[in-house]
UniProtKB/TrEMBL annotation:
<comment type="function">
    <text>Exhibits palmitoyl protein thioesterase (S-depalmitoylation) activity in vitro and most likely plays a role in protein S-depalmitoylation.</text>
</comment>
<keyword id="KW-0732">Signal</keyword>
<dbReference type="InterPro" id="IPR026138">
    <property type="entry name" value="CLN5"/>
</dbReference>
<comment type="function">
    <text>Catalyzes the synthesis of bis(monoacylglycero)phosphate (BMP) via transacylation of 2 molecules of lysophosphatidylglycerol (LPG). BMP also known as lysobisphosphatidic acid plays a key role in the formation of intraluminal vesicles and in maintaining intracellular cholesterol homeostasis. Can use only LPG as the exclusive lysophospholipid acyl donor for base exchange and displays BMP synthase activity towards various LPGs (LPG 14:0, LPG 16:0, LPG 18:0, LPG 18:1) with a higher preference for longer chain lengths.</text>
</comment>
<dbReference type="Pfam" id="PF15014">
    <property type="entry name" value="CLN5"/>
</dbReference>
<dbReference type="GO" id="GO:0016798">
    <property type="term" value="F:hydrolase activity, acting on glycosyl bonds"/>
</dbReference>
<dbReference type="GO" id="GO:0008474">
    <property type="term" value="F:palmitoyl-(protein) hydrolase activity"/>
</dbReference>
<feature type="signal peptide">
    <location>
        <begin position="1"/>
        <end position="24"/>
    </location>
</feature>
<comment type="similarity">
    <text>Belongs to the CLN5 family.</text>
</comment>
<keyword id="KW-0325">Glycoprotein</keyword>
<dbReference type="GO" id="GO:0007040">
    <property type="term" value="P:lysosome organization"/>
</dbReference>
<protein>
    <recommendedName>
        <fullName>Bis(monoacylglycero)phosphate synthase CLN5</fullName>
    </recommendedName>
</protein>
<dbReference type="GO" id="GO:0005765">
    <property type="term" value="C:lysosomal membrane"/>
</dbReference>
Length: 338
């Protein structure tokens, strides 16, 4: 019993260690659970340091304007993450990528729309540690990608390609305006969901912001515009951390700036050090042991969310990858006559 109460005291102790000049002002959304995902006025230009091994949205195009009288089938698309590299391997672990497909009845053209990382998943989940800069450096932008065509083999072979609703061209055009807004204001990829426990109705501290959340937001917008979805089971991958109540530590300036807390800044930097790419099997296992020591033995995880650092007092079972059912939305309007 005594051991379980210690992690809950750590956030308070860490905050008390901060000198008055180095303490963060109240973080945006602090005390509101889940912490609201911050939106921005514009998308910043990525730093040239951030380079993707695989080009983001190589055949992408702008969303076309459909004729209002067009009728479009809307498809749920799902396939294993990194299927192009590992085939259906991650599908067996239910680690899936989600997208939305459209088919125009007037032109017969197919389209795919998805949201994913600009610089691959690892860069969005963990930072780079550069010797010339004490602060961790993040390449964690995500964005929408729209292109003509649906790769049937990609989505069908190890995943899902199924129609979920039908919309008019007018609804598609309204959705396209919303996608433009959503893409310009929601710019950072957030891998982790953080909850207080694995129980179904446990408190959510942070929501993830990744491909499946974009699909769910798109479905909800279509429902608001009148789309009526079929009754079917739909599941999505969630990667969840479990912790006690998080404590906001501050942003890059308050932690790593001239008036920041050097010991806490070093602790954050050292925490991320084992997550760097490994160059040998031995290095991989040494880093894994360090991660387990931080998360499992010391009950410690530093989360970067909304450009701020949060301390998570970790709790058993620490992390879980689940394939959870999230129902399709109910329509808020009457279906159009087709």
């Amino acid at each position: 019993m005594e051991q379980r109460t210690i992690p809950g005291l750590l956030p308070l102790l860490l905050l008390l260690l901060l000198p008055p000049a180095g303490r963060a002002t109240v973080c945006e959304g602090e005390g509101r659970w889940p912490v609201p995902y911050r939106r921005f006025d514009r998308r910043p230009r990525p730093d040239p340091f951030c380079q993707a091994r695989y080009t983001f949205c190589p055949s992408g195009s702008a969303l076309p304007e459909m004729r209002e009288t067009d009728v479009l089938a809307v498809y749920r698309l799902q396939a294993p993450v990194w299927e192009f590299k590992y085939g259906g391997l991650l599908g067996h672990l239910k680690i899936m990528h989600d997208a939305v497909g459209f088919r125009s009845s007037l032109t017969g053209k197919n389209y795919t729309m998805e949201w994913y990382e600009l610089f691959q998943l690892g860069n969005c989940t963990f930072p780079h540690l550069r010797p010339e800069n004490p602060a961790p450096f993040w390449c964690n932008q995500g964005a929408a990608c729209f292109y003509e065509g649906i790769d049937d083999a990609h989505w069908k072979e190890n995943g899902t390609l199924v129609q979920v609703t039908t919309i008019s061209g007018a609804v598609f055009n309204q959705m396209a305006k919303w996608v433009d807004y959503d893409n310009k204001t929601g710019i950072y990829y957030e891998t982790w969901m953080v909850k207080s426990s694995p129980e179904k109705n446990s408190r959510v501290w942070f929501e993830a912001y990744e491909c499946s959340k974009f699909v769910l937001r798109t479905y909800q917008k279509l429902a608001e515009l009148g789309a009526v979805f079929k009754k079917m089971q739909t599941n999505y991958t969630t990667i969840t951390l479990f912790s006690g109540e998080p404590a906001c530590l501050g942003n890059e300036t308050t932690l790593f700036g001239p008036l920041g807390n050097k010991s806490l800044a070093l602790a954050i930097r050292n925490f991320y050090l084992p997550f760097k790419p490994y160059h040998s099997v031995k290095e991989f296992f040494l880093n894994l042991l360090k991660i387990l020591e931080e998360v499992v033995l010391d009950h410690r995880f530093y989360l970067f969310y909304n450009l701020e650092y949060w301390f998570l007092p970790m709790k058993y079972p620490y992390m879980k990858i689940a394939y959870e059912e999230i129902p399709l939305p109910n329509s808020n309007a009457t279906k159009f006559d087709v």
